């Protein structure tokens, strides 16, 4: 007999592909997402309005180093508890977020004094666009 969880997992495989299934299976076994960046990409892929909203002006050139861009993002992005004071980049890679207007972004997994965050970055025309997402803690 198939459980609801198995049916949902099969649906995820059909909708988002094998990598989504692998992440879901690993999260199932440990309670922690195997890859928080993949999990975020999956979530944003089905949310057509995710990119709407403001992005801070980072005032950096297109060829600025990633660590400098992320530092500037945290200088100019406040959270409920204030501004990030310490951070360490754990992983960076280019991701493609499917949707109405599919596009590639630089994703960085960052450990901060407020917990882990994912920073999405893209240089658009004359400026850096950025968005910061909290990494979901295990239940």
Task: Please tag this protein with its features.
single chain, 139 residues, alpha+beta, 4-stranded antiparallel beta sheet, two-stranded antiparallel ribbon, 4 helices, 6 strands, disordered N terminus
Describe this structure as you would to a colleague.
This protein is α+β, with helices and mostly antiparallel strands. It has a domain at 50-134. It is 34% helix and 31% strand. The protein has 4 helices and 6 strands, in the order ααααββββββ. It has a 4-stranded antiparallel β-sheet with strand order 3-4-5-6, with helices on both faces. Strands 1-2 form a two-stranded antiparallel ribbon. β3 (87-97) and β4 form a beta hairpin. The two termini are 27 Å apart. The model is unreliable at 1-28 (pLDDT under 50).
Brief account:
It contains 4 helices and 6 strands. With 139 residues, the chain is an alpha+beta fold.
Range of helix content? 25-40%
Q: What structural class results from the helix and strand content? A: alpha+beta
Query: Ranges with pLDDT <50 over ≥5 residues?
Result: 1-28
Strand content bin: 25-35%
Termini distance?
27 Å
Helix and strand sequence: HHHHEEEEEE
The backbone outline, from C-alpha atoms, is: globular
The biggest sheet, with number of strands, parallel, antiparallel or mixed sense and barrel status, is: 4 strands, antiparallel
Average pLDDT across residues? 81
Q: Measured on Cα atoms, how large is the radius of gyration? A: 16 Å
Strand order of the largest sheet: 3-4-5-6
Helical run tally: 4
**Total number of beta strands:** 6
